[in-house]
């Protein structure tokens, strides 16, 4: 079995894949930069035990991280509980994609993993959209070249900024009112946040498809807000909550030698 870990700014997503490449268990932990390797080790041991997964059955591990401050902690944690050093997605890793990015070292590991998964499952051209703390889009062309993409504030981050930086606007539950023209402040915030975000997504996807010369290419969404947007937008063609983890599993197999 292979353990795949996606360390994000808000959550750490974990997935265990069996020898056939199928995901058999996932967990989501809160990202805590202050936590020690011992604390994370205790948590991982508990999760494995509760899932009836034996540590000795895990023969490999790979990590994508956008939180450099946690890299050493995660590495120490996995080394302690699994007795081997995990593979980190970074320079020198074979991806199967050509990274047409000005400086590939600045490209988020999660974006690479998602692009690898989308291209392996859907071919190219393909667009990825990851609705996390930040919303990131990526584009892979027909030749398997990652061309880049764009980065926007995440939906939750935008809502938090509105609440924190204004005196009278409250925090709201994400929902889509029946009408865009809202008749109260809460519905107005929900309308502006959700429908405004959908408009942003549809515009960006349309521009990316035009630049790819692929008006019908698939758009694969992942992340915590993916379903909220996809259910209300025709721009998203697939939702895959485990897209990044699947990309890590592909990458591990490609680099395991």
Account of the 3D structure:
The protein has helices spanning 37-50, 68-82, 109-122, 155-165, 185-212, 226-230, 243-255, and strands spanning 2-7, 11-17, 23-30, 60-65, 87-88, 98-99, 126-131, 134-140, 145-153, 219-222, 238-239. It folds into two domains: 2-88, ATPase, nucleotide binding domain (Nucleotidyltransferase, domain 5), CATH 3.30.420.40; 98-247, Nucleotidyltransferase, domain 5 (2-Layer Sandwich), CATH 3.30.420.40. It has 257 residues and is of the alpha/beta class. The strands form two sheets. Strands 6-9-8-7-10-11 form a six-stranded mixed beta sheet, with helices on both faces. Strands 3-2-1-4-5 form a five-stranded mixed beta sheet, sandwiched between helices. It is built from seven helices and eleven strands.
Spell the H/E element sequence.
EEEHEHEEHEEEHHEHEH
Global structural class = alpha/beta
Taking the alpha carbons of the first and last residues, their distance comes to 16 Å
Radius of gyration: 19 Å
Q: Could you say what the CATH architecture of the largest domain is?
A: 2-Layer Sandwich
Oligomer: single chain
> Largest sheet, described in full?
6 strands, mixed
Strand order of the largest sheet: 6-9-8-7-10-11
Count of individual domains: 2
- Number of DSSP helices? 7
CATH topology of the largest domain: Nucleotidyltransferase, domain 5
At the first level of CATH, what is the class of the largest domain?
A: Alpha Beta
Strand-residue proportion: 15-25%
Number of strands: 11
Low-confidence stretches: none
Helical residues, percent: 25-40%
Question: What is the residue-mean pLDDT, rounded to a whole number?
Answer: 92
CATH superfamily of the largest domain: ATPase, nucleotide binding domain
What best-fitting shape do the alpha-carbon axes yield?
Answer: globular
């Amino acid at each position: 079995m292979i353990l795949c870990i996606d360390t994000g700014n808000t959550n750490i997503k974990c997935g265990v894949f069996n020898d056939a490449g199928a995901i058999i268990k996932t967990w989501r932990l809160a990202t805590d930069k202050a936590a020690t390797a011992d604390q994370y080790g205790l948590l991982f041991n508990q999760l494995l035990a509760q899932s009836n997964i034996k540590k000795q059955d895990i023969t490999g591990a790979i990590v994508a991280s956008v939180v450099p401050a946690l890299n050493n902690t995660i590495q120490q944690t996995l080394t302690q509980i699994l007795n081997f050093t995990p593979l980190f997605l970074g320079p020198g890793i074979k991806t199967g994609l050509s990274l047409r990015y000005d400086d590939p070292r600045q490209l988020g590991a999660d974006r690479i993993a998602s692009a690898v998964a989308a291209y392996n499952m859907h071919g190219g051209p393909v667009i990825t959209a990851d609705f996390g703390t930040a919303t990131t889009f990526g584009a892979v062309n027909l030749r398997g070249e990652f061309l880049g993409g764009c980065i926007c504030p995440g939906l939750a981050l935008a809502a938090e900024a509105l609440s924190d930086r204004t005196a009278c606007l409250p925090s709201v539950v994400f929902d889509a009112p029946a009408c865009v023209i809202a008749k109260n402040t809460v519905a107005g915030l929900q309308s502006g946040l959700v429908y405004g975000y959908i408009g942003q997504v549809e515009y960006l996807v349309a521009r990316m498809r035009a630049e790819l010369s692929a008006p019908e290419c698939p758009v694969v969404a992942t992340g915590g807000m993916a379903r909220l947007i996809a259910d209300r937008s025709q721009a998203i063609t697939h939702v895959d909550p485990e897209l990044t983890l699947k990309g890590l599993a592909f990458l591990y197999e490609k680099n395991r030698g």
